[in-house]
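Dear H.,

Thanks for agreeing to be a second pair of eyes. The structure we're designing against is below in token form, covering all 410 positions.
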């Protein structure tokens, strides 16, 4: 049996339908598995290396066993082994020009990285670094297996199990050096920048806070003022588009999925990951992060209530909060309780730790009466009531449309 037939035999029927759509393959009856396999098998533009990108690691191992190859190793190494076997067996390579409909992937090959979609290219101008002799030098990074059960599926979902080293453009360095580190700003696709950072910082980052696109369906613009040489006014104003936050649902989820995996790789064992989002996609992102980090790694859903937001006349309750989803890399993370002053003191029962019952109990005096105290501070919980920045603010506002206040982060 040819390699392509072995691969098709382990692919699920629903995934076969997706492959047929991705490669524009005509199928007589998409409800019938045999019809799907026959049509894909006959399609020359759909080659084994294309089909292998749709498989999980266990499926690839199964194909290796079917053709008599050693199934030990990681997915990318096994795929290379299978393609080498197919080339040897057939006396010619399976490598063919990829159809433009083929699903893009990050692989351990040294070829140019395909952008996620044609509409959103991922910095195609960034090239692989070459040493002085001009030979391409690719450093490969394979990731740890996904820790949770896949609870969320979307059209075109593909695994992201490895990446390669990319050069990155360091745009700005600022601030004082502390313990050998200075703050840095990189310019480029953050997927490639994080791939660049893996070389030095894999498993070393203690805290990651990310404020990604919210899929808010908005084009963010900024008003720019420029000098004019006339008597009417000294300035003219025009709008400049800063960025677009308009996505299809599937495109957005794949974008976030790949980057969440990379950020998990950068985290140290006692590291903590915070993702800032809102009502548009928080429900999807919670399920996505449960898959990447594992359900048990979830620590908090912090609600930021910005009470000073101005609302128009809408026929529903106003959306006056964002959320931050907090995950830990392991159970070794450090948590420091935070306290804040109350608006006015309140009388509370004093609580103490009882070693016998291993629980908090009411404190009592020598006569057995409950002890009360005047509490002036309280422990901060997972609802943070903080104002959002307003256009009239003169201290922090820099004109970035989705800028967050410093108090939220410090």
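And this is the sequence the design step returned. I haven't edited it by hand at all.
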């Amino acid at each position: 049996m040819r390699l392509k037939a072995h691969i098709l035999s382990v692919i699920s029927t629903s995934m076969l339908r997706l492959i047929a759509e991705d490669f524009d393959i005509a199928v007589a009856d998409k409800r019938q598995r045999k019809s799907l396999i026959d049509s894909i098998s006959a399609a020359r533009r759909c080659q084994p290396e294309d089909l292998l990108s749709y498989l999980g690691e266990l499926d690839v191992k199964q194909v290796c066993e079917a053709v008599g190859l050693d199934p030990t190793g990681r997915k990318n190494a096994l795929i290379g082994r299978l393609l080498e076997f197919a080339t040897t067996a057939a006396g010619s390579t399976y490598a063919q020009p990829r159809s433009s409909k083929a699903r893009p992937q990050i692989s351990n090959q040294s070829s140019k990285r395909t952008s996620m979609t044609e509409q959103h290219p991922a910095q195609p101008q960034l090239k692989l670094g070459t040493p002085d002799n001009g030979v391409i030098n690719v450093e490969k990074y394979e990731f740890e297996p996904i820790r949770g059960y896949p609870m969320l599926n979307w059209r075109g979902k593909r695994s992201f199990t490895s990446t390669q080293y990319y050069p990155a453009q360091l745009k700005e360095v600022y601030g004082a050096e502390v313990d050998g580190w200075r703050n840095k700003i990189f310019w480029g696709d953050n997927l490639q920048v994080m791939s660049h950072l893996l070389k030095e910082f894999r498993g070393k980052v203690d805290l990651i806070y990310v404020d990604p696109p919210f899929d808010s369906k908005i084009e963010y613009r900024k008003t720019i003022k420029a000098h004019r040489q006339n008597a009417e006014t000294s300035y003219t104003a025009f709008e400049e588009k800063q960025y677009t936050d308009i996505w299809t649902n599937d495109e957005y989820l794949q974008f976030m999925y790949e980057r969440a995996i990379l950020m998990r790789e950068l985290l140290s064992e006692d590291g903590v990951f915070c993702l800032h989002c809102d009502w548009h996609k928080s429900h999807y992102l919670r399920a996505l992060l449960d898959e990447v980090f594992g359900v048990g790694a979830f620590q908090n859903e912090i609600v930021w209530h910005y009470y000073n937001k101005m609302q128009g006349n809408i026929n529903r309750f106003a959306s006056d909060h964002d959320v931050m989803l907090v995950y830990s890399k392991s159970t070794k993370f450090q948590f420091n309780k935070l306290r804040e002053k109350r608006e006015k003191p309140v009388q509370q029962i004093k609580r103490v730790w009882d070693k016998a019952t291993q629980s908090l109990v009411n404190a009592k005096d020598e006569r057995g009466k409950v002890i009360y105290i005047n509490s002036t501070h309280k422990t901060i919980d997972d609802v943070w009531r903080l104002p959002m920045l307003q256009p009239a603010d003169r201290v922090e506002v820099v004109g970035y449309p989705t800028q967050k206040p410093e108090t939220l982060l410090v």
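Two observations from my side: Residues 18 and 204 are 38 Å apart (CA to CA). The longest helix spans residues 249-266.

Warmly,
E.
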